[in-house]
Specification:
This protein has 313 residues and is of the alpha/beta class. It contains 9 helices and 14 strands.
Length: 313
């Protein structure tokens, strides 16, 4: 299977690292914003075709599928363009920064029948997979999730500390991970509330946010997000259940008493991004809907839309 990858930044390289571990997959085209750094990444991974124009890659007949790691504001239009070109597509989270755009992508997927998957990586991290297996097996009923999403990002920088060409967003990007995961683990969300702190004078976004969710099962979720946190960075999940407490830190899982849980046998890899890409490839090969398909994650974007209207109101 031949893949084109758009977005040669920090997250694009995480996908390239994962894809090289999947048998029968070759990245044949790399698309970036500027040619010189994109060429450097292509050289590192042995990718022969390099361009700054997604349409050029979509015109390559041998390309079967595209992975989009581009700025959020481009996701929806680019995903639609990929499907219009007859290519399967995986869109990095978030699918869009508006409900209308997210619904347009879903409509295009239904029209074309192509695989369209969204990079909601928490569904694939071994830590969260283990919790999900317990829930599905009836071994765990979650009563509460307590989640912290913390960064120190007072300037517009990416994960590598390089200047970004676009502005990140606590609600449409970072909250999307938790909103979707909460529904995935606890059932459809029936109530959602949000408050935010002052907007950054230059970036124009809220730097602090608090979100409360309730699922139809009765479980609740408290999510705290900040770009002002000068401490441990990332997202940390505490699951409180009827017969145990667990703390998930990306792919790793601990008990409530900080005892590490062995999740090495949960899946074929300990890397959530690689597992996400494996699901995308498998769904294409098997002609089935992937976990984290656009249809499955669309309810998340409906909740984000509700929250945005609350914040604006």
């Amino acid at each position: 299977m031949k893949i084109a990858l758009a977005g040669a930044g920090a997250f694009g390289e995480k996908h390239l690292d994962g894809l090289k571990l999947i048998d029968g997959v070759e990245v044949v085209s790399l698309i970036g914003r500027t040619l010189e750094p994109t060429q450097a990444v292509a050289d590192k991974y042995g990718i022969k075709h390099v361009t700054t124009d997604l349409a050029e890659s979509l015109a390559i007949p041998e390309v079967d599928a595209v992975i989009l790691c581009t700025p959020t504001q481009m996701h929806a239009a680019q995903a639609i363009a990929c499907m219009d070109a007859g290519k399967h597509v995986q869109v990095e989270i978030p699918l869009a920064d508006s409900l209308a755009d997210a619904e347009a992508v879903n409509d295009k997927q239904r029209e074309t029948g192509l695989i369209c998957m969204v990079g909601h990586t928490r569904r694939f991290n071994p830590s969260h997979q283990l919790i999900h297996k317990k829930v599905v097996a009836g071994e765990l009923a979650i009563s509460q999730m307590d989640v912290q999403t913390y960064f120190f990002r007072r300037k517009n920088m990416n994960a590598k500390g390089q200047p970004r060409s676009w502005t990140d967003h606590l609600l449409w990007h970072h909250a999307a991970h938790t909103v979707d995961l909460f529904a995935y683990q606890c059932g459809p969300i029936v109530k959602a509330n949000a408050i935010e702190g002052p907007l950054h004078p230059e970036l124009g976004i809220a730097m602090d946010m608090s979100i409360q969710l309730k699922s139809e099962s009765g479980a609740i979720c408290t999510l705290s997000l900040s770009f002002n946190n000068d401490g441990p960075l990332g997202t940390f999940f505490r699951y409180i259940g009827d017969n145990g407490t667990w703390i998930a830190r990306y792919d790793d899982l601990f008990t409530g008493k900080e005892e590490q849980v062995d999740v090495s046998k949960v899946d074929v890899s300990m890397n959530g991004i690689e597992l996400q890409d494996r699901e995308f490839i498998a769904a294409i090969r098997e002609g089935r809907e992937p976990n984290s398909s656009v249809a499955q994650v669309l309810p998340c974007y409906r909740i984000l839309d509700q929250l945005e209207k609350q914040l604006q109101g």
